[in-house]
Specification:
alpha/beta, Uracil-DNA Glycosylase, subunit E, six-stranded mixed sheet
Length: 232
């Protein structure tokens, strides 16, 4: 089974139930379709020298062609929408999350010239609402209970490096997703700013870090540069 086939099967097993739960949400602002990953060139991804997975906080509705949940879309259409969404590629944006991914991409490729490095963008909360604001407790509870797919995504995509960058507001969502984690301090940084993160559940992950949101207004070069220095 190919990577995208595995992902599609994973999402399809949960989509009917999640969509039914979405219809019962009482929020005035309805949730958006969840983030469903897809790999454009699977052979290229599988044979890359390094694979990086970025985690932002929540999936912002309104930016997606298929974000509106008033009509139920097939899983494959939502996965294809991921490939069309410009912010998924580190090179696609100089603002927000894209700016942080773009800077990390530049620094990493300077450190490893000649290596083929591929990137996947993900979110620790797989859905938000159609305004793109932080999801309500009700939406987050429904998504975590009925679309808890992140650990399976990691096992399917097998990244070498994971950047958990939802910002402080999303740190609780990380532990809700993975359980209690072991955080290792990095000199010159408060653990809430940047720290190493142990993910023993995924032995293929060589490095994992938790940090401020990549869209935040801070010296990203200082933070991301510190990560680069820790990589062998």
């Amino acid at each position: 089974m190919s990577i995208n086939q595995e992902l599609e099967k994973l999402y399809a097993e949960k989509w009917d139930n999640l969509y039914a739960q979405f219809q019962n949400i009482k929020d005035e602002i309805k949730p958006c379709n969840p983030l469903m990953l897809s790999i454009e060139d699977e052979d290229d991804y599988k044979t890359a020298d390094l694979r990086v997975m970025f985690f932002g906080r929540e999936t912002s509705g309104g930016k997606w062609r298929l974000s509106d949940t008033s009509k139920k879309h097939p899983v494959k259409e939502i996965m294809d929408d991921y490939l069309r969404f410009s912010d998924k590629k580190p090179s696609a944006s100089n603002r927000g999350m894209g700016a942080g991914m773009n800077l990390f991409k530049t620094l990493l490729e300077e450190k490893y010239p000649g290596k083929r490095i591929r990137y996947v963008w993900n979110n620790i909360v797989k859905s938000s609402n159609l305004l793109g604001t932080y999801p309500s407790d009700e939406v987050r509870n429904v998504v975590f209970e009925h679309f808890n797919v992140i650990r399976q995504e990691i096992n399917i995509l097998k990244p070498d490096i994971i950047l958990l960058a939802p910002g402080v507001k999303g740190y609780g969502d990380i532990e809700r997703q993975f359980g209690k984690l072991d955080y290792q301090p990095i000199p010159q940084f408060h653990p809430n700013q940047l720290c190493r993160t142990a993910l023993p559940e995924f032995p293929f992950v060589k490095y994992a870090f938790r940090m401020y949101h990549l869209a935040g207004h801070y010296n990203k070069y200082h933070y991301l540069g510190a990560i680069i220095k820790l990589l062998n």
